[in-house]
Here is the input.
Amino acid sequence: MEITCPNCGFQRTIDDSKVPSRKAMVHCKSCGHRFPLKKARSIAVLLSKGGVGKTTTSVNLAAGLALEGKRVLLVDTDTQGQSAYMLGVKPKAGLTELVTRELKPKDAMFKARDNLWLLSGGKSLAGIKRMIDRKDFGGEMTLTEALAPLEVHFDFIVIDSSPGWDPLTVNVLFYAKEVLIPVSLEVMSLQGLSEFIKSLQSIKKYRKEVGIKYILPTFLDERIKNPGEILEKLRTIYEQYLCPAIRYNVRLSEAPAYGMTIFEYAGGSTGAADYKGLVKKVLAEDEEEEES
Ligand SMILES: Nc1ncnc2c1ncn2[C@@H]1O[C@H](COP(=O)(O)OP(=O)(O)O)[C@@H](O)[C@H]1O
Ligand SMILES: [Mg+2]
Here is the structure.
């Protein structure tokens, strides 16, 4: 990876494997300045089921972290390419061009907002899936090879994923360390959740760094009794991962048509308040780590 000294601007390349942890001290060979080399936290928003709020969560979590001054890269691994739509931008390139090395990272990424960059998804990702399939070995590391060198430039890498289970989903799980699972309380999706967790466990056999970090109930409608029951079950089974629920909020479904995040479209809405809560929860983890 390329690193730049914040003191004198001297650039050098260091071997990724020589950076032991998410945070390490680096010594500038030119001016002698010592500075922390902080690597991004990688959070994948995943669940095999569609329509549970994955893209809404990825976009608003990424935007919320960026508003808090964090440098965020949002990576869209879905062929539907909804993240760009939700942010109201039309990048000419994205994740495909980064993975195929057609473009350098700085040209593949699109600056969507202050502190927020996007590696957009879309139909061209189908070619990446074929590329992964054709590799004799190491196909599951394709995404990691593309994203790991970018980690020093960001505080967070948030990954939106497609419904279903395909070579790119496996790649996401071989790359990200933290998994955030949105669970819709509108439909009985607990079965989908336990199946997904089983698949995640099978990946964990090969890659122990990855694990469930957050379970985020979505579409909470306080007027309906049933969501309460699902929420209770979630609380019993997955208590340590459970986040406060995102309520059903019509503003969240309206915002994408205007190409705005919930904070831009309806900053005073319950949707904005709930996603702000999630941002705080994710950041609280950072502070704990810094204190330790
Ligand atoms: N909490 C919510 N309240 C109301 N509508 C929501 C909420 N979360 C998501 N939506 C809407 O539901 C639809 C599906 O959400 P989306 O994030 O695209 O799900 P996924 O990415 O899992 O398929 C979108 O139209 C989105 O705007
Ligand atoms: Mg989606």
